[in-house]
Specification:
Helices cover 62% and strands 6% of the residues. The protein has one domain. The chain has 98 residues and is mainly α. It is elongated, with a radius of gyration of 16 Å. Helix 1 runs parallel beside helix 3 and helix 2 packs across helix 3.
Length: 98
Amino acid sequence: MKFQVYIALAMFSVLLTGCSQVYLSKPNITKEQYKKDVSYCEYEALKHTPTTSSADKYGIELGLARRDIIIKCMEVEKGYTQFSNKEEAKKFKDSKKD
């Protein structure tokens, strides 16, 4: 059983850090505010997905669902824009500075 959990966690890590990486940017945002926004959206994702032991059977799908909720929360509620690479996100942030 533990071996299956480790495999699921490894696959989950690859999915989240591999080619599906997303960058969120917002003009004139501080690191502190970004951290607060991410924490808020992570909390929202946890509220809207299972958090009991029944979540174990969903594995990667649950992680991806939470990731999607966090991204949508950051865009819709917090005003961030999504980019597929770090350079585009940085250009966007820098282009909006006063």
